Amino acid sequence: MPRPPRLSPDDVATALDALPSWSGDADGIRRTVQLPTFREAVDAIVAIADVAEEMDHHPDVDLRWRTLHLSLVSHSAGGVTELDLELARRIDALLPD
């Protein structure tokens, strides 16, 4: 199945308007989440991993004590695609502000 194409900078900017917890540009989008405890941060990674596996699209995750730094980019497309935006929406559903 073909992967979606890289989105234009304007398309990514428009999409980020609907994803206020995320920042970035057509080269990648990012979100930082602080959880109450280290264990809850680890549990959040497991929940994100389940969604990522289901989508066959995986974020870069950096855990620093109880803070998650999440980065999304479709390396095969050289930038942000609709897959990244959908994964961001699903992460937001798991980790609302």
Automatic annotation (TrEMBL):
Q: What is its EC number?
A: 4.2.1.96
Instruction: Output the Gene Ontology terms for molecular function.
Output: 4-alpha-hydroxytetrahydrobiopterin dehydratase activity
Q: What class of enzyme is it?
A: lyase
Q: Gene3D superfamilies from the xrefs?
A: Transcriptional coactivator/pterin dehydratase (3.30.1360.20)
Q: Which SUPFAM superfamilies match?
A: PCD-like (SSF55248)
Which Pfam families does the UniProt record give? Pterin_4a
Q: Which family does it belong to?
A: Belongs to the pterin-4-alpha-carbinolamine dehydratase family.
Protein name, per record: Putative pterin-4-alpha-carbinolamine dehydratase
Identify the species of origin.
Answer: Blastococcus tunisiensis
